Predict the 3D structure of the following.
Amino acid sequence: MNKIWLIIQREYLSRVRKKTFILSTFLTPLLFAGIIFAVIMITIKNQGEEKIAVHDTAGIYKSKLKSDKQIKFEFTNDVDTSNVLAKGYVGVLYPPHTAINNTDNFVIYTKKSLSLSAKSSVDRLVANAIENRLFDSLYNLQLSSIDSVRSLARSVDVQNKIIGEGGRSQSASSGAAYAVGYASAFLIYITLFIYGTMVLRGVSEEKTNRIAEVMVSSVKPFQLMIGKIVGIGAVGITQFLMWIILMTVFSTILTSTIPPDLLQQMQDGANVPGGTAQFSESTVTIARASTALSAVNLPLVIGCFLFYFLFGYLFYASLFAAVGSSVNEDPQDAQSLMFPITMPIVVGIIIMINAITNPTSSLAVWASIIPFFSPIVMMARIPFGVPGTVAWWELGLSMLLLIAGFLFTTWLSAKIYRTGILLYGKKVTWKEMAKWTFRKN
Amino acid sequence: MNILEVSHLKKYYATQKAVDDISFTLTKGSIFGLLGPNGAGKTTLIRMITGIFFPDEGTITFNGRKFDPLNDSVNIGYMPEERGLYKKMKIGEQAVYLAQLKGLTRQQAMESAKEWFVKFNMQSWWNKKVEDLSKGMSQKLQFVITVMHRPQLIILDEPFSGLDPVNASLIKDEIYNLAKGGASIIFSTHRMGEVEEICDHIILVNKGAKILDDTVHNVKQQFKENLFSIKLENPPAQIDSPVFQVLNQKNGEHIVKINEGYKPNDVLQYFLQQQAGIVGFNEILPSLNDIFIRLVEGTPQARQFEKVTA
């Protein structure tokens, strides 16, 4: 036990002290923070309006076409395609001036193509204008009353409540569950690969450096393998924890740099979901996301994430170790031997993409129980709710099988590892590895 | 007192009888040569003694008790033929780490490492990495790491390969010191010169089986061919005697082979009668190299794979 501890320490410290570890630990959250910062900055920037000239000779739209925060329409007839930029406009809109319900023939001329959000804003505003015009001319309704009716109607947000025990209902949010599930499943997928290959490289390095023989004359091969796997797993957990801490720190710093009025908007938006009229779209989205996120059982998700990361890693890491012990200097051998291990991980992610849109399908249920796929697929399902979408027995069985699977792969890999680590100059096939597992001693 | 007793050890691979019924004993404080051509099964035999492999059959007794790889590995130091160290790890740390794995506490390991680094004049290496060392330097380091935890049994597989004469003699002296201090040393090699110089006792294995097991002196006696070298001041023009045959002669030095039933005295007597003026007379014992070649002769140079039925 003491020897395993020594090995874990070495594996852990030698990696944590590496420059690449320190760099990736600090740079990844910085990168994330940078992206978030950039998105916020661009959102703030985009709130600057873009002026569009409307060439409305008939004057039909003058009172109907409303500007919003992003797009400002100005009605002027001395702007055309030749001088649009010189006059300070992004583009010039030519509405049709024939039939009242004509929705074709709206053309906007710009030098650069409109951004996606600007285009959708223009579409929406023009649609409103046509609506207004039709209401006005067909039913003679007051424009102001139409607007208030419309904004009231659009503020609706259908809430999905899950029928719980004892009549208590819980809010559910498939959108947030989808996002959380997708993110955590992908994170598991990526970390399985990163840390799995780290184990593989560590083992094959020991083999090609010929240190293996020195080591196994003082410790059992099994101790060496377990020490390496646990040490690298601890590196992974350290990195996760560092990321969580750093991201919290960065986001606190970042929120203090966001202009206070925008922050106020976001907080108000969170308190009054659906209060669309006075908020820009983005703040409403953020507000909705944060209320939706609170519907997901985060402590359970984080707990399960750590469990599935840890045991998923242990399950696959020992297989990676077995492959690492079987390859020689030739990296191509590693590629072909790695294929059968990476296959189930990739299949897992494919099943996950299907399962997340339909988390109760039988494919999703069974894949989340089979240890090869369960770390990825189960993590995609859990945010949809336990015991709503995932029954307790499913979660329990999945965890039990994963633990059993990890014990099995470790036992299996230990047998391959013991022989492979001291075998040089010979290309190992899967058939041979199978033979090693069935040999006694 | 025997530190190691190996009896009827067998290890068969799918295509070879790597070790086929080998027995020997090793007394405390002796230097023991394990000889054999390439592929004779030396490494497999050593790996069983170090607990890396389990024998298929046979027993190993260490210090009077049944060999227990887990606990006895503390008392064994093994330097494999293929040297190996962590390339990116600092040398001092590495030495301490490997000694700790052998059961030393951190403090003991530190003290021992410092002592050996001073002895071998390697203090400046402490914070360097193995990848910065030359081949000979890492060889020295490997030796230090092998003996750092004061093992009772030290197994050295080709310890001098890649070393210059100065460093080789440094390590040789250290081997003698260790043996004097009570450690037993198994010395696996196929360089006979080293064996003759260092070892008390040798065994020779070929094709997985032991073919010779004796002290260096006895082996030489056993394989002597009654050859003598005699140096004469004025050799007779015609040498003809029933006592011996002249095999070779050069500058008055004659290599003679004494025939069955005669003694060296008879040779001397003959030359005394001839007034040849004897300047020197001594026995020529075969070198281990010759014995080795003679015993192993006929073995194909590369060991062939065979079907094993066992």
